[in-house]
Description:
By secondary structure, the chain is α/β, with parallel strands linked by helices. It has 6 helices and 11 strands. The strands form 2 sheets. Strands 1, 2, 3, 4, 5, 6, 9, 10 and 11 form a 9-stranded mixed β-sheet that branches. It has a two-stranded antiparallel sheet with strand order 7-8.
Amino acid sequence: MSRTLLVLTPMKQSAAQLDRYFANLAGLEQHPADxxxxxxxxxxxxxxxxxxxxxxxxxxxKYRRVTIIERDFEFEVPEGLRxxxxxxQAPRRITLARSRNHLLFGALNDEDWVLWIxxxxxxxxxxxxxxxxxxxxxxxxxxxxxxxxxxxFDGNAWRNQGELKMDGMRGQGLVRLDGVGGTMLLVxxxxxxxxxVFPAYPYGRRSxxxxxxxxxxxxxxxxxxxxxxxxxxxxxxxxxxxxxxxEILHYPE
Length: 253
């Protein structure tokens, strides 16, 4: 019995990555007729949208369904800063969360699974989805690195309040995570339908608006975007899992 897959990728200034992105996608073991594609292009001036649109006839003939959404959020990394600069993390990740949610709501139809892949993931095994599905888990994250066997690139995938990343869990097989990243993330689609999203606000903190009989031991601070999603998933009753020995590669920063 086939399982349908929706691959979702937010894109921003991603024209240079498209050839590699689609070559990698074509190598997946899953049959293209079982794969739908969804893209959200935002705040791009390098021709990303036009390049994607030019591929639509070819993609539509091969894949189950193709959705392209254009939505600008008017966020740019200030000149002189890198996207990882601490001073812009909150607004950057709020924008990422909004981008992912707009894409999810606009592209999800009847698929069984959602696979989030960042545009700047450069390589992954052809059986990466097969391996993640074989775990039998509903939310699964591979280990994103820049070089094989190296330090984890996706620092949003962690345990022990962020102190333990996936590169510190190699050799342990399937491991529970507390936080996840979005470089590649497999989610059972029904969990998204049940309300799992990427919080564009600090999720997990105790609200001052709770009624007196509510839990008063909520965590202060909260988490944004993918890490907020992982906390939300746990609140919904779903564990989040990592595969430290299943590596995917990211372009060097």
